[in-house]
From TrEMBL:
Keywords, sorted A to Z: Lyase, Pyridoxal phosphate, Transferase
Naturally occurring in which organism (per UniProt): Leeia aquatica
Modified residues (N6-(pyridoxal phosphate)lysine): K218
Domain of life: Bacteria
Gene3D superfamilies xref list: Aspartate Aminotransferase, domain 1, Type I PLP-dependent aspartate aminotransferase-like (Major domain)
Protein name, per record: PLP-dependent transferase
Annotated PANTHER family: CYSTATHIONINE BETA-LYASE-RELATED (PTHR43500)
Catalysed conversion reaction: an S-substituted L-cysteine + H2O = a thiol + pyruvate + NH4(+); L,L-cystathionine + H2O = L-homocysteine + pyruvate + NH4(+)
Length: 403
Protein backbone atom coordinates (compact mmCIF):
# COMPACT_ATOMS: atom_id res chain seq x y z
CA UNK A 1 0.00 0.00 0.00
CA UNK A 2 1.44 3.35 -1.05
CA UNK A 3 1.47 6.28 1.36
CA UNK A 4 -1.19 8.78 0.24
CA UNK A 5 0.03 12.23 -0.64
CA UNK A 6 -1.46 15.34 0.91
CA UNK A 7 -2.62 17.98 -1.60
CA UNK A 8 -3.40 20.75 0.88
CA UNK A 9 -1.93 23.92 -0.54
CA UNK A 10 -4.15 26.90 0.25
CA UNK A 11 -2.60 27.54 3.68
CA UNK A 12 1.20 27.57 3.66
CA UNK A 13 1.31 27.24 7.44
CA UNK A 14 -0.57 23.93 7.37
CA UNK A 15 1.67 20.86 7.82
CA UNK A 16 2.15 18.80 4.68
CA UNK A 17 1.37 15.57 6.52
CA UNK A 18 -2.11 14.26 5.85
CA UNK A 19 -2.17 12.62 9.26
CA UNK A 20 -1.61 15.96 10.97
CA UNK A 21 -4.15 17.69 8.76
CA UNK A 22 -6.86 15.17 9.66
CA UNK A 23 -6.32 15.90 13.34
CA UNK A 24 -6.39 19.69 13.02
CA UNK A 25 -8.75 20.59 10.15
CA UNK A 26 -12.24 21.76 11.06
CA UNK A 27 -11.36 22.97 14.56
CA UNK A 28 -11.20 26.74 14.11
CA UNK A 29 -14.29 27.42 16.23
CA UNK A 30 -12.99 25.33 19.13
CA UNK A 31 -10.68 28.05 20.39
CA UNK A 32 -13.54 30.33 21.45
CA UNK A 33 -14.79 27.68 23.88
CA UNK A 34 -11.30 26.59 25.01
CA UNK A 35 -12.17 23.06 23.84
CA UNK A 36 -10.32 20.47 21.79
CA UNK A 37 -13.38 19.71 19.67
CA UNK A 38 -15.39 22.42 17.92
CA UNK A 39 -18.77 23.13 19.51
CA UNK A 40 -21.91 21.54 18.10
CA UNK A 41 -24.01 24.49 16.92
CA UNK A 42 -27.67 23.73 16.24
CA UNK A 43 -29.84 26.55 14.94
CA UNK A 44 -32.83 27.30 12.77
CA UNK A 45 -32.70 31.08 13.33
CA UNK A 46 -29.46 33.02 13.04
CA UNK A 47 -29.27 36.55 14.45
CA UNK A 48 -27.40 39.55 13.03
CA UNK A 49 -26.32 42.61 15.02
CA UNK A 50 -27.24 45.17 12.35
CA UNK A 51 -29.49 45.47 9.32
CA UNK A 52 -26.39 45.85 7.17
CA UNK A 53 -25.06 42.50 8.42
CA UNK A 54 -28.43 40.89 7.73
CA UNK A 55 -28.49 42.22 4.17
CA UNK A 56 -24.89 41.18 3.61
CA UNK A 57 -25.68 37.58 4.62
CA UNK A 58 -27.72 37.15 1.44
CA UNK A 59 -24.66 37.92 -0.63
CA UNK A 60 -22.57 35.12 0.82
CA UNK A 61 -22.15 31.67 -0.68
CA UNK A 62 -25.12 29.55 0.30
CA UNK A 63 -24.12 26.58 2.51
CA UNK A 64 -20.86 28.32 3.41
CA UNK A 65 -21.87 31.49 5.26
CA UNK A 66 -24.38 32.26 8.07
CA UNK A 67 -27.83 33.07 6.70
CA UNK A 68 -30.54 30.74 7.95
CA UNK A 69 -30.41 27.34 9.63
CA UNK A 70 -30.95 25.55 6.33
CA UNK A 71 -27.72 27.00 5.00
CA UNK A 72 -25.84 25.73 8.04
CA UNK A 73 -23.92 26.84 11.10
CA UNK A 74 -20.24 26.80 11.92
CA UNK A 75 -20.50 23.03 12.43
CA UNK A 76 -21.54 22.37 8.83
CA UNK A 77 -19.16 25.00 7.47
CA UNK A 78 -16.14 23.51 9.22
CA UNK A 79 -16.83 20.00 7.98
CA UNK A 80 -17.30 21.23 4.42
CA UNK A 81 -14.11 23.27 4.57
CA UNK A 82 -12.16 20.32 5.98
CA UNK A 83 -13.47 17.95 3.31
CA UNK A 84 -12.71 20.42 0.52
CA UNK A 85 -9.16 20.79 1.78
CA UNK A 86 -8.65 17.04 2.09
CA UNK A 87 -9.94 16.59 -1.46
CA UNK A 88 -7.81 19.34 -2.98
CA UNK A 89 -11.01 21.14 -4.01
CA UNK A 90 -12.38 24.66 -3.62
CA UNK A 91 -15.75 23.74 -2.22
CA UNK A 92 -17.89 21.07 -0.58
CA UNK A 93 -21.65 20.63 -0.15
CA UNK A 94 -23.06 18.52 2.70
CA UNK A 95 -26.37 16.73 2.12
CA UNK A 96 -28.48 14.31 4.20
CA UNK A 97 -27.09 11.11 2.62
CA UNK A 98 -24.86 9.80 -0.12
CA UNK A 99 -27.89 9.14 -2.31
CA UNK A 100 -29.17 12.68 -1.78
CA UNK A 101 -25.78 13.95 -2.98
CA UNK A 102 -26.01 11.75 -6.07
CA UNK A 103 -29.59 12.91 -6.71
CA UNK A 104 -28.56 16.55 -6.35
CA UNK A 105 -25.75 16.21 -8.90
CA UNK A 106 -27.81 14.22 -11.39
CA UNK A 107 -30.81 16.53 -11.00
CA UNK A 108 -28.66 19.61 -11.54
CA UNK A 109 -27.45 18.29 -14.91
CA UNK A 110 -30.63 16.66 -16.20
CA UNK A 111 -32.37 18.33 -19.14
CA UNK A 112 -35.34 17.27 -21.31
CA UNK A 113 -33.69 15.81 -24.38
CA UNK A 114 -30.27 16.00 -22.77
CA UNK A 115 -28.07 12.96 -22.30
CA UNK A 116 -26.54 11.62 -19.10
CA UNK A 117 -23.97 8.88 -19.65
CA UNK A 118 -23.92 6.41 -16.77
CA UNK A 119 -21.25 3.80 -16.16
CA UNK A 120 -22.49 0.22 -16.08
CA UNK A 121 -22.46 -1.29 -12.59
CA UNK A 122 -23.00 1.91 -10.60
CA UNK A 123 -24.81 1.84 -7.26
CA UNK A 124 -28.31 0.40 -7.79
CA UNK A 125 -30.25 3.42 -6.46
CA UNK A 126 -28.23 5.68 -8.76
CA UNK A 127 -29.38 3.72 -11.78
CA UNK A 128 -32.94 3.50 -10.44
CA UNK A 129 -33.01 7.27 -10.00
CA UNK A 130 -31.97 7.74 -13.61
CA UNK A 131 -34.43 5.20 -14.99
CA UNK A 132 -37.43 5.93 -12.79
CA UNK A 133 -37.15 9.68 -12.18
CA UNK A 134 -35.03 11.33 -14.86
CA UNK A 135 -36.04 9.23 -17.87
CA UNK A 136 -39.80 9.91 -17.40
CA UNK A 137 -38.90 13.63 -17.42
CA UNK A 138 -37.50 13.11 -20.94
CA UNK A 139 -33.87 13.12 -19.89
CA UNK A 140 -32.01 10.52 -21.89
CA UNK A 141 -29.85 8.06 -19.96
CA UNK A 142 -27.40 5.71 -21.66
CA UNK A 143 -24.87 3.37 -20.09
CA UNK A 144 -21.28 2.64 -21.03
CA UNK A 145 -18.84 0.00 -19.82
CA UNK A 146 -15.41 1.47 -20.68
CA UNK A 147 -13.67 4.58 -21.91
CA UNK A 148 -13.66 3.11 -25.42
CA UNK A 149 -17.41 2.57 -25.21
CA UNK A 150 -17.93 6.10 -23.89
CA UNK A 151 -16.01 7.60 -26.83
CA UNK A 152 -18.73 6.47 -29.24
CA UNK A 153 -21.58 7.83 -27.12
CA UNK A 154 -20.47 11.35 -26.18
CA UNK A 155 -22.44 13.88 -28.22
CA UNK A 156 -23.23 17.59 -28.19
CA UNK A 157 -26.35 16.69 -26.21
CA UNK A 158 -24.31 15.16 -23.36
CA UNK A 159 -24.66 17.05 -20.07
CA UNK A 160 -22.89 14.73 -17.61
CA UNK A 161 -20.75 11.61 -17.42
CA UNK A 162 -21.27 9.70 -14.16
CA UNK A 163 -18.84 7.02 -13.00
CA UNK A 164 -18.19 4.99 -9.86
CA UNK A 165 -14.82 3.45 -8.99
CA UNK A 166 -14.92 0.62 -8.48
CA UNK A 167 -18.44 -0.21 -9.65
CA UNK A 168 -20.88 -1.27 -6.97
CA UNK A 169 -21.04 -5.07 -6.41
CA UNK A 170 -19.17 -5.95 -9.63
CA UNK A 171 -16.06 -4.04 -8.42
CA UNK A 172 -15.36 -3.22 -12.09
CA UNK A 173 -12.69 -0.58 -12.66
CA UNK A 174 -12.92 2.08 -15.35
CA UNK A 175 -10.03 4.11 -16.72
CA UNK A 176 -10.76 7.33 -14.86
CA UNK A 177 -8.13 9.40 -16.64
CA UNK A 178 -9.27 8.30 -20.09
CA UNK A 179 -12.93 8.95 -19.27
CA UNK A 180 -12.15 12.42 -17.94
CA UNK A 181 -9.99 13.29 -20.96
CA UNK A 182 -12.73 12.25 -23.38
CA UNK A 183 -15.37 14.20 -21.49
CA UNK A 184 -13.19 17.29 -21.12
CA UNK A 185 -12.54 17.35 -24.85
CA UNK A 186 -16.31 17.66 -25.34
CA UNK A 187 -16.78 20.13 -22.48
CA UNK A 188 -18.80 17.61 -20.46
CA UNK A 189 -18.31 17.44 -16.67
CA UNK A 190 -17.51 14.13 -14.99
CA UNK A 191 -19.09 13.22 -11.66
CA UNK A 192 -17.70 10.28 -9.71
CA UNK A 193 -19.02 8.31 -6.77
CA UNK A 194 -15.70 8.15 -4.94
CA UNK A 195 -17.00 6.69 -1.67
CA UNK A 196 -14.95 3.47 -1.79
CA UNK A 197 -11.53 5.08 -1.85
CA UNK A 198 -12.18 8.27 0.15
CA UNK A 199 -9.74 11.15 -0.50
CA UNK A 200 -7.14 9.12 1.40
CA UNK A 201 -6.88 6.35 -1.22
CA UNK A 202 -8.29 8.07 -4.34
CA UNK A 203 -7.41 11.64 -5.37
CA UNK A 204 -10.40 12.11 -7.66
CA UNK A 205 -9.84 15.73 -8.68
CA UNK A 206 -6.17 15.22 -9.49
CA UNK A 207 -7.21 12.53 -11.96
CA UNK A 208 -9.61 14.88 -13.74
CA UNK A 209 -12.94 14.34 -11.94
CA UNK A 210 -14.97 17.57 -11.77
CA UNK A 211 -17.45 16.50 -9.08
CA UNK A 212 -16.55 13.89 -6.44
CA UNK A 213 -19.39 12.41 -4.39
CA UNK A 214 -18.83 10.66 -1.07
CA UNK A 215 -21.32 8.80 1.09
CA UNK A 216 -19.74 10.06 4.30
CA UNK A 217 -22.11 7.61 5.98
CA UNK A 218 -19.35 5.10 5.36
CA UNK A 219 -15.58 5.44 5.87
CA UNK A 220 -15.41 9.19 6.39
CA UNK A 221 -17.60 8.90 9.48
CA UNK A 222 -16.55 5.32 10.19
CA UNK A 223 -18.82 4.58 13.16
CA UNK A 224 -22.05 3.34 11.50
CA UNK A 225 -24.17 6.01 13.16
CA UNK A 226 -24.51 8.84 10.62
CA UNK A 227 -26.27 9.41 7.28
CA UNK A 228 -24.37 12.04 5.29
CA UNK A 229 -23.27 12.98 1.78
CA UNK A 230 -20.32 15.21 0.87
CA UNK A 231 -19.75 16.52 -2.65
CA UNK A 232 -16.53 18.32 -3.62
CA UNK A 233 -15.40 20.33 -6.60
CA UNK A 234 -14.68 23.84 -7.77
CA UNK A 235 -17.25 26.57 -7.19
CA UNK A 236 -18.01 26.57 -10.91
CA UNK A 237 -18.44 22.78 -11.08
CA UNK A 238 -20.80 22.78 -8.09
CA UNK A 239 -22.76 25.93 -8.93
CA UNK A 240 -25.78 24.12 -10.41
CA UNK A 241 -25.76 21.48 -7.67
CA UNK A 242 -25.50 24.11 -4.93
CA UNK A 243 -28.41 26.07 -6.40
CA UNK A 244 -30.49 22.92 -6.67
CA UNK A 245 -29.83 21.98 -3.05
CA UNK A 246 -30.83 25.49 -1.98
CA UNK A 247 -34.08 25.36 -3.94
CA UNK A 248 -35.05 21.92 -2.65
CA UNK A 249 -33.95 22.48 0.95
CA UNK A 250 -31.40 19.67 0.84
CA UNK A 251 -29.71 20.41 4.14
CA UNK A 252 -27.89 18.21 6.63
CA UNK A 253 -28.12 18.42 10.40
CA UNK A 254 -25.36 19.93 12.49
CA UNK A 255 -25.29 16.72 14.56
CA UNK A 256 -24.35 14.59 11.54
CA UNK A 257 -21.59 17.01 10.56
CA UNK A 258 -20.19 17.13 14.09
CA UNK A 259 -20.04 13.34 14.24
CA UNK A 260 -18.37 13.20 10.83
CA UNK A 261 -15.70 15.64 12.01
CA UNK A 262 -15.07 13.21 14.86
CA UNK A 263 -14.70 10.37 12.35
CA UNK A 264 -12.19 12.24 10.20
CA UNK A 265 -9.72 12.34 13.09
CA UNK A 266 -9.00 8.60 12.78
CA UNK A 267 -9.45 8.10 9.03
CA UNK A 268 -5.70 7.73 8.46
CA UNK A 269 -5.57 4.97 11.10
CA UNK A 270 -8.68 3.08 10.07
CA UNK A 271 -8.20 2.97 6.30
CA UNK A 272 -4.81 1.20 6.25
CA UNK A 273 -6.21 -1.38 8.69
CA UNK A 274 -9.24 -1.95 6.46
CA UNK A 275 -6.85 -2.34 3.52
CA UNK A 276 -4.54 -4.92 5.09
CA UNK A 277 -7.37 -6.93 6.63
CA UNK A 278 -9.46 -6.95 3.46
CA UNK A 279 -6.49 -8.06 1.38
CA UNK A 280 -5.71 -10.88 3.82
CA UNK A 281 -9.30 -12.16 3.85
CA UNK A 282 -9.68 -11.80 0.07
CA UNK A 283 -6.46 -13.72 -0.59
CA UNK A 284 -7.54 -16.48 1.78
CA UNK A 285 -10.99 -16.71 0.19
CA UNK A 286 -9.50 -16.99 -3.30
CA UNK A 287 -7.96 -20.33 -2.26
CA UNK A 288 -11.18 -21.89 -0.94
CA UNK A 289 -13.00 -24.52 -3.04
CA UNK A 290 -16.42 -22.98 -2.36
CA UNK A 291 -15.34 -19.71 -4.01
CA UNK A 292 -15.34 -19.35 -7.79
CA UNK A 293 -13.65 -15.94 -7.80
CA UNK A 294 -13.01 -12.88 -5.68
CA UNK A 295 -13.89 -9.53 -7.22
CA UNK A 296 -11.40 -7.14 -5.60
CA UNK A 297 -9.19 -4.80 -7.67
CA UNK A 298 -6.38 -4.96 -5.12
CA UNK A 299 -5.77 -8.62 -6.02
CA UNK A 300 -3.25 -9.17 -8.84
CA UNK A 301 -5.67 -11.68 -10.37
CA UNK A 302 -8.45 -9.10 -10.75
CA UNK A 303 -8.92 -7.73 -14.30
CA UNK A 304 -9.02 -4.19 -12.92
CA UNK A 305 -5.80 -4.52 -10.91
CA UNK A 306 -3.64 -2.40 -13.25
CA UNK A 307 -6.19 0.44 -13.20
CA UNK A 308 -6.43 0.20 -9.42
CA UNK A 309 -2.65 0.52 -9.17
CA UNK A 310 -2.74 3.56 -11.45
CA UNK A 311 -5.40 5.51 -9.59
CA UNK A 312 -5.50 4.25 -6.00
CA UNK A 313 -3.06 4.15 -3.10
CA UNK A 314 -5.03 1.55 -1.12
CA UNK A 315 -8.13 -0.64 -1.07
CA UNK A 316 -10.58 -0.68 1.85
CA UNK A 317 -12.96 -3.33 3.10
CA UNK A 318 -15.92 -4.12 0.80
CA UNK A 319 -15.47 -6.62 -2.01
CA UNK A 320 -17.59 -9.24 -3.76
CA UNK A 321 -17.13 -12.98 -4.12
CA UNK A 322 -18.79 -15.35 -6.56
CA UNK A 323 -19.74 -18.62 -4.89
CA UNK A 324 -19.64 -22.07 -6.41
CA UNK A 325 -23.21 -23.11 -7.29
CA UNK A 326 -25.24 -23.60 -4.12
CA UNK A 327 -28.90 -23.87 -3.19
CA UNK A 328 -30.85 -21.15 -1.43
CA UNK A 329 -31.17 -23.23 1.78
CA UNK A 330 -27.39 -23.86 1.80
CA UNK A 331 -26.76 -20.17 1.20
CA UNK A 332 -29.08 -19.29 4.07
CA UNK A 333 -27.29 -21.68 6.43
CA UNK A 334 -23.95 -20.20 5.50
CA UNK A 335 -25.06 -16.59 6.08
CA UNK A 336 -26.81 -17.32 9.37
CA UNK A 337 -23.92 -19.35 10.80
CA UNK A 338 -21.41 -16.49 10.61
CA UNK A 339 -20.45 -15.15 14.01
CA UNK A 340 -18.42 -12.01 13.31
CA UNK A 341 -20.17 -10.80 10.15
CA UNK A 342 -23.40 -8.91 10.72
CA UNK A 343 -26.10 -9.30 8.06
CA UNK A 344 -26.88 -5.81 6.87
CA UNK A 345 -26.64 -3.18 4.17
CA UNK A 346 -23.94 -0.51 4.06
CA UNK A 347 -20.24 -0.71 4.82
CA UNK A 348 -17.40 1.52 5.95
CA UNK A 349 -17.94 1.16 9.69
CA UNK A 350 -15.81 -0.60 12.27
CA UNK A 351 -17.77 -3.86 12.02
CA UNK A 352 -17.65 -6.60 9.38
CA UNK A 353 -20.78 -7.18 7.31
CA UNK A 354 -22.16 -9.72 4.86
CA UNK A 355 -25.06 -9.45 2.41
CA UNK A 356 -26.29 -11.05 -0.81
CA UNK A 357 -24.99 -9.01 -3.76
CA UNK A 358 -27.78 -8.99 -6.32
CA UNK A 359 -26.98 -7.45 -9.73
CA UNK A 360 -29.41 -4.92 -11.19
CA UNK A 361 -30.90 -7.30 -13.77
CA UNK A 362 -31.70 -9.95 -11.12
CA UNK A 363 -33.36 -7.67 -8.55
CA UNK A 364 -36.87 -8.78 -9.49
CA UNK A 365 -36.30 -12.51 -8.89
CA UNK A 366 -37.62 -13.96 -5.60
CA UNK A 367 -34.78 -16.54 -5.50
CA UNK A 368 -31.37 -16.09 -7.02
CA UNK A 369 -29.89 -18.66 -9.45
CA UNK A 370 -27.62 -21.26 -7.85
CA UNK A 371 -24.85 -20.52 -10.33
CA UNK A 372 -23.21 -17.11 -10.31
CA UNK A 373 -24.47 -16.22 -6.85
CA UNK A 374 -22.65 -13.18 -5.45
CA UNK A 375 -21.88 -12.24 -1.87
CA UNK A 376 -20.54 -8.92 -0.60
CA UNK A 377 -18.26 -8.77 2.41
CA UNK A 378 -17.19 -5.68 4.27
CA UNK A 379 -14.04 -6.33 6.28
CA UNK A 380 -14.10 -4.31 9.48
CA UNK A 381 -11.56 -3.74 12.21
CA UNK A 382 -11.74 -7.16 13.84
CA UNK A 383 -8.80 -9.53 13.68
CA UNK A 384 -8.58 -10.81 10.09
CA UNK A 385 -7.53 -14.19 11.48
CA UNK A 386 -10.80 -14.38 13.43
CA UNK A 387 -12.74 -13.42 10.32
CA UNK A 388 -11.04 -16.15 8.26
CA UNK A 389 -11.76 -18.72 10.97
CA UNK A 390 -15.40 -17.63 10.99
CA UNK A 391 -15.67 -18.03 7.22
CA UNK A 392 -13.79 -21.35 7.34
CA UNK A 393 -16.40 -22.76 9.72
CA UNK A 394 -19.32 -21.53 7.56
CA UNK A 395 -18.11 -22.27 4.01
CA UNK A 396 -18.67 -26.07 4.17
CA UNK A 397 -22.38 -25.37 4.70
CA UNK A 398 -22.55 -24.08 1.12
CA UNK A 399 -21.95 -27.61 -0.11
CA UNK A 400 -24.89 -29.11 1.77
CA UNK A 401 -28.06 -30.33 0.08
CA UNK A 402 -31.36 -28.51 -0.21
CA UNK A 403 -32.80 -30.14 2.89
Amino acid sequence: MKTPACTLTSRPDLPASLETALVHLGRDSAAASHAVNPPLVRASTLLFPTLADFKASNGGCVFESPRYGRSGTSTQFELQQAMARLSGAESCIATPSGLSAIAAVLGAHARPGGLILLQEGVYGPTRALCEQVLAPLQCRVETFCSAEDLAGKLTAASFLVFIEVPGSLTMQMVDVGAVCALAAAQGVPVACDATWGTPLFFDAHRHGVDIAIHAATKYLNGHSDVMLGLTTGSYAALEATRSGCDRTGSHVSADACWLALRGLRTLHLRMPRHHTSALQVAQWLSLQPQIERVLFPALPTDPGHALWQRYFTGAPGPFTVELAPCSEPAFTRFIESLQWFGLGTSWGGFESLVMPAIPHHLRGLPVQPDAGRLLRLHIGLESPDDLCRDLAAALPLLQGGAG
